[in-house]
Design brief:
- There is one protein chain.
- The chain has about 240 residues and is an alpha/beta fold.
- The chain has one domain: Rossmann fold, CATH 3.40.50.
- Helix content is about 35%, strand content about 30%.
- It has helices spanning about 45-55, 80-90, 105-115, 125-140, 155-165, 185-205, 235-240, and strands spanning about 1-15, 20-30, 35-40, 60-70, 70-75, 90-95, 175-180, 205-210, 220-225, 230-235.
- The strands form 2 sheets. The protein has a 6-stranded mixed beta sheet with strand order 6-7-8-3-9-10. Strands 2-1-4-5 form a 4-stranded antiparallel beta sheet.
- Helix 3 packs across helix 4, helix 3 (about 105-115) runs parallel beside helix 5 (about 155-165) and helix 4 (about 125-140) crosses helix 5 (about 155-165).
- The radius of gyration is 18 Å and the shape is globular.
- The two termini are about 35 Å apart.
Length: about 240
Amino acid sequence: MTALTVEDLTLTYPDGSDRLTALNRVNLTVAGGAIAAITGPSGSGKSSLLATVATLIRPDSGRVLLETGDRTVDLAQLGRRTAAAVRRAEIGIVFQQPNLIPALTAVEQLEVMSRLGQHRFVPARVRRETRSKAMDLLAAVGLADQHAKRPAQLSGGQRQRVDIARALMNDPALLVIDEPTSALDTERGSAVIDLILEVVRAHRAATLLVTHDRSHLHQMTSVYTMTDGVLTPTSAAAVAA
């Protein structure tokens, strides 16, 4: 059983002689295979929440519990080196703008994820298995026939799908997705949301998704609104109204 539980998460930033509160005792729970959507105005703390949950920022206080099987880890308490190892093994991150490596093909973008933190020498058998898994994930996002193309040769929607496939390469227990449709038109944005729903259910990852697009909120498992660092459970109908 996979689950994410955030308890009383607080984060502040220096603001002159004072401190600015980015997250104010945030609480939420997301089960494996579920998607919690987070909406709210710019600057309300949504990106800070994602970065903290993904171990990119350490909070002032609170807990971020990631449960995988019979093991529970408090992500908020990890040191820098351990956090980096956990990100590689347990967390998939999909950025607002696909952060792809220009020189690598689509399939190589995924393959490199399996090599992070490994020794330089990789046996041929492992390389074949990695290539096969990468191709399967590209097929799952409809890009098997684009596997040899580099980012500059792909459309915005295709780059976003490569980014989603790459985030799944190490079978993460937790997915953190930031504004996946912000650079896409309505049709491509809907296709990306449908893809996220499909892969989250298939891989049973607990998923946090920040979005400004209210048209897809009815498809989410739960919806929260962030205002001035305070997270409030909200019905999809109320947010869309």
